Amino acid sequence: MLPAFFSGSVGAVKDLTRVLIAEDEFLLRLDAADSMRRLGWEVVEVSSADEAMELLRYRVTFDLLVTDIDMPGQADGLDLARYVRSAHSEMKIVIMSEDRADRPIDPHLFELMVVKPLWNVGETLIKLMEADRNAG
Amino acid sequence: MQADEVETILVASSDALQRSMIAKYLRECGYSVIEATGFDDARIAIGHYEVDVVVSDTQMRDGTGFDLSTYIRSRHLDIEIILTQSLVKTAQVAGDLCEQGPLDQPYHPQRLVDEIKRLRAVR
């Protein structure tokens, strides 16, 4: 038995939702990643926007980015969202914020904004991803 | 070490590509895997979860595998620690763990090494 990533190009399995989560709070990231894995999704975890952009440059493809805004490093979550919008326009973006009124954010940068701590967002994320598949 | 005794593996590495693919490999072998992006993540993980095995890079962005090993030993925790320094070694460790894992026919870790090298090459 070979793992899925040996079966062809990375991210080629279109029925599998592949998620990149960028969040520096370890326990929050772990909880969110585990929740999404329980949905049957494949999740890659990083702790900074810099690390996420580094990974995306390896031609690893994802369907969804879930990102915090404030993270350590040169780039923040909004920089990451802008990069994804320009270089990986097929990806959907969910921004996790401490406070919805924290700062004005360009609404074109994300499909969904959620306020931390995350509660019951699984169904919303499923709808977000299914909407795209149903439209396709 | 018997497979049914190993439930949770903590993979600690600051290399996102290597960490995520080793973790995926181990999950597909049937293990529960926690990913730590550095020493601090690993320390928090060990404080919150029952970890059976730690597979850690020697060098991480905020500490070393030796720091992590010292932290674990100072708390007298019964955790097996495997320090790795190269992709090949890390993949071999993952392969060895998979051979003891619940799947009947584990795949060869060289395939993991080849895949990661291929991704790095196409960057």
From TrEMBL, chain A:
The alphabetical list of record keywords is:
Phosphoprotein, Transcription, Transcription regulation
Please provide an example of a Pfam family that matches this protein in its UniProt record.
Answer: Response_reg
The keyword Nucleotide-binding is assigned to this record: no
Query: Any idea which residues bear 4-aspartylphosphate here?
Result: D68
Q: Where is the Response regulatory domain?
A: 18-136
Coiled-coil regions listed in the entry: none
Domain of life of the native organism: Bacteria
InterPro entries to which the protein is assigned, alphabetical: Bact_response_regulator, CheY-like_superfamily, Sig_transdc_resp-reg_receiver
Q: Which PANTHER family match?
A: RESPONSE REGULATORY DOMAIN-CONTAINING PROTEIN (PTHR44591:SF3), STRESS RESPONSE REGULATOR PROTEIN 1 (PTHR44591)
- What is the protein's given name? CheY-like chemotaxis protein
From TrEMBL, chain B:
Recorded hits in PROSITE patterns, A to Z, give: RESPONSE_REGULATORY
Answer whether the UniProt record assigns the keyword Oxidoreductase to this protein: no
Which residues does this entry mark as bearing 4-aspartylphosphate?
D57
Q: Which UniProt keywords apply?
A: DNA-binding, Phosphoprotein, Transcription, Transcription regulation
User: For this chain's UniProt record, which GO biological process terms are given?
Assistant: phosphorelay signal transduction system
Query: What SUPFAM superfamilies would the database entry show?
Result: CheY-like
- Which residues belong to any copy of the Response regulatory domain? 8-120
Q: Which InterPro entries does the record match to this protein? A: Bact_response_regulator, CheY-like_superfamily, Sig_transdc_resp-reg_receiver
GO molecular function terms listed in the Swiss-Prot or TrEMBL record: DNA binding
Q: Does the keyword Transcription apply?
A: yes
Write down what this protein is called: DNA-binding NtrC family response regulator
Q: Which organism is it from?
A: Rhizobium wenxiniae
